Amino acid sequence: MSDILPPLTLVEHFLGYWSEFGTNKVIADPGLSSKQRALVTDAARSLDKAKMMRFDEKSGNFYCTELGRIASHFYIQYSSVETYNEMLRRHMNDSEVIEMVAHSSEFENIVVREEEQNELEMMARNSCPLEVKGGPSNKHGKISILIQLYISRGSIDTFSLVSDAAYISASLARIMRALFEICLRRGWSEMSLLMLEYCKAVDRQIWPHQHPLRQFDRDISAEITRKLEERGADLDRLYEMQEKDIGALIRYAHGGKLVKQYLGYFPWIQLSATVSPITRTVLKVDLFITPDFTWKDRFHGVALRWWILVEDSENDHIYHSELFNLTKRMARGEPQKLSFTVPIFEPHPPQYYIRAVCDSWLHAEAFYTISFHNLALPENNDNLNLWFDAFAGIGQTFHVLYHTDNNVLLGAPTGSGKTISAELAMLRLFNTQPDMK
């Protein structure tokens, strides 16, 4: 720790240590090693309480958790993680999500000022589609208003609110991404999708309930998208309509051609899949992804990332998740194939759902159902008590492992038999030195 802390920090702790314990203990421990150990132990206990790591005080060992890795990757404070552990649930609505984010420790420096109340109340009425718990006079209510104002692209007049809004927006995207990763690692299907929606809502400053074509806001006017929202013209309906029908719907003839053109740029893919049982509890899935849109570098960049999720809606659980990068070359070629395995449990659910959700575009997703009604699974067979005559390639190290005490460096890929090799060396030890067990 003395190599990590800056010299001034060590001096400060040294002076505090001196005043707390006296000269004798300072002379006995001039390197502050006991003080450093106490600091590390306190920090480890706090991280253990937040479930970001496991701390074994007897051995002094640290064991990182998935939650800790996520918090480290997105620079989330441990006190925020404690808040999420308390407030994050499997089922939450939009207002509860915003309220939870507003309780993040990253925003603890936000204060409520009397001169801001009138403008905050006006913002809550005009720019906040979700409920604001506590109102503008409450610290977390103020943060909730500014979060919603940022997504709504609202304007601010008061200078102090401009500063607070910039402070909040600087951390908002990474907090949302961290919450999405937490829900994904916990296997929560509904909450993962909701948090991913809000990740994209923050990135694009568009609400999930607004029309998807608002994402082309530089090319399609707000007046056109507003009319589409008022008339309930979702993407599926617009795809089926002709240009003239769209123009008549929005009462703007040229707008029909414009909307139809940008519908072709909207990321749209089709899914199909084949399922093959490997055992009674494991299925192999071959997923075919067919892009069905016109690639334009200005909108899609070099590649589009898609989350591939296999979920059981009855149990609200994700059994498989992975990121798939769709490049411009792939979008012009043949259907892309992904292969993976998923577990299946008895009693069998009626179906699994495969969902492909774009990581950066709101409402860009595809859906496929895997039905288990006619799925023929292999029968359970008893294991036969058979012996093997020879080892595989890696197992040919048997002689040196089992009959000698020589050092061995064994490098091999996953699933090739490294564990068996280690067990052979352990058997050698148990047979020759039983007291070493």
From TrEMBL:
Molecular functions (GO terms): ATP binding; helicase activity; hydrolase activity
Pfam family membership, one: Sec63
Protein name: Dexh-box atp-dependent rna helicase dexh14
GO CC terms of this entry: nucleus
SMART domains, per database record: Sec63
Domain spans labelled SEC63: 64-372
InterPro entries in the cross-refs: C2_domain_sf, Hel308_SKI2-like, Ig_E-set, P-loop_NTPase, Sec63-dom, WH-like_DNA-bd_sf
UniProt-listed SUPFAM superfamilies: E set domains (SSF81296), P-loop containing nucleoside triphosphate hydrolases (SSF52540), Sec63 N-terminal domain-like (SSF158702)
Taxonomic path: Eukaryota, Viridiplantae, Streptophyta, Embryophyta, Tracheophyta
Keywords recorded for this protein, A-Z: ATP-binding, Helicase, Hydrolase, Nucleotide-binding
